[in-house]
């Protein structure tokens, strides 16, 4: 069924006059008459009948008008939505580590909105550990995720956007609590609280111990760094964690790690095999322009 003919039909149904409807549609009256005749032939029933100088709908025409208007309304709404997306408007779905939701990601999102006040933009924010975020990206639940470095086997595109310092935390009264710095090898004899293997930082900490050929004494494992900090404060063990302001509020001692290297990169990750909506492309570029670490390249 010809889409233009549907629009012609709806216009004629409201105007109820061929000449006036044709003028409103900017077509000739014979073209309008031909279009209506084609519709009636396709449907097998008359849609209009003469009523004096005007043209009115038959009962079949009234029934078809409801269908045509609903169809055109749905189509027009869909077309307008796509046009808005093409203009760079729409929804940006972000997945992020909880620590990045305190300041880093909200600051970027806020700055992006302020840079584009003329666009209708929305964000959704979902937190989780690295593995769950990458799973969500694979399932297309998120457009971009901010997390630890993804495994090469996933073939995601990742770029480092922030560095985190790793520190050792110990409860007050611990034998190491009198120190300001420590070598990681000195912690081997003490029970430690480790990140769960689903957390991206686990691989970083594992590698640190591997670099010094030391096997840590793992007493507990959990996913969230805030939980690790709380357990450490209550004497369940010591832990290597990213530095965060929360640590200053707990009954802990924070030690700098001398050796090995104790820095962690956090990444913005997307699946380059999937088309990103223009608004997501623009936000991703905004993040790259704002945060990419010097000397770092796409992975």
TrEMBL record:
In this chain the HTH lysR-type domain maps to 1-58
Q: Which GO terms describe its cellular component?
A: protein-DNA complex
Transmembrane intervals:
none
Single GO MF annotation: DNA binding
Q: Which PROSITE patterns match?
A: HTH_LYSR
- Write out the entry's keywords from A to Z: DNA-binding, Transcription, Transcription regulation
Family, according to the entry, reads as follows: Belongs to the LysR transcriptional regulatory family.
The protein in question is named LysR family transcriptional regulator
What is the source species?
Sellimonas catena
